[in-house]
Design a protein that fits this description.
alpha/beta, globular, TIM Barrel, 10-stranded mixed beta sheet, 11 helices, about 325 residues, two-stranded antiparallel ribbon, 12 strands
Length: about 325
Amino acid sequence: MNFPDYRPRRLRKNENLRRMIRETRLSVDDLVCPLFVTHGSGVKTPIDSMPGQFQLSIDHLIGETQKIRDLGIPAILLFGIPETKDEQGSGAWIDEGIIQQAVRRVKDEVPDILVITDVCLCEYTSHGHCGVLDGEVVDNDASIELLARTALSHARAGADMVAPSAMMDGQVLAIRDALDGEDFEDIPIMAYAAKYASCFYGPFREAAEGAPQFGDRTSYQMDPPNAREALREIALDVAEGADIIMVKPALPYLDIIRMAKDEFDLPLAAYNVSGEYAMIKAADERGWLDGKRTMLESLVSIKRAGADIIITYFAQEAAELLR
């Protein structure tokens, strides 16, 4: 079909036409809202590098979760900030840990929202790494035992889904075995299957107070230049029992999202991470970009690449516009 017989602009001339033939549709049903929960009462501490995001005590968390539910967002993803840290990260799995307390309160007071919990040790260890150390090396096999213990404690508290993010080899299998061993066969695992060692996590580390105290995470998170390796990582998590697979970050890895969507027949999540959020917020504050339009275009691109689920700090803002 060649001009003048075919004119693509015919189908772009007004919004109703554009809506009718739109190939990708972003919905509030696609969104998961991450939240940071901390000890205390009346705490709502702004996160400087993530305008509009806060560290919340449980009382504020309940109010925020109710707003999220009322916007039609189906799920929240909880990250905990403990009162104390130690070498083992024991605050991650204790019965009165911050996540365990938060899950119980949310399920009591906002039972009609899905509660997903991040399963990692980085917020809880004094050294800030995602597992326990043998010298200055993260001990993979010792760490997966503690990650399984953490996931199990979340399930006991009432979590609807657990999301292991530590990138330890075998973590999904260890968690699946632990959950099944206590009759939590119905708790799904959303695996951070292809999680890259990305500089886009910087604001999150401020928010969660989980930056490593030495070195970095390149020995266990994925090397950004690698694509085929992501498919191997995802295949391992699928074989170990993952119910949902995830690519993180989202925008710099749209190609990986598409590859994963084409290769695997499981629901696919993508994490629109803190640095992606912070860049748009900063540009909007300076008048360099239209923040709302840039946000929606970014989220649509993640959906178009193949994500079924989008974890994003923009969830509430997007939901307001999508209703």
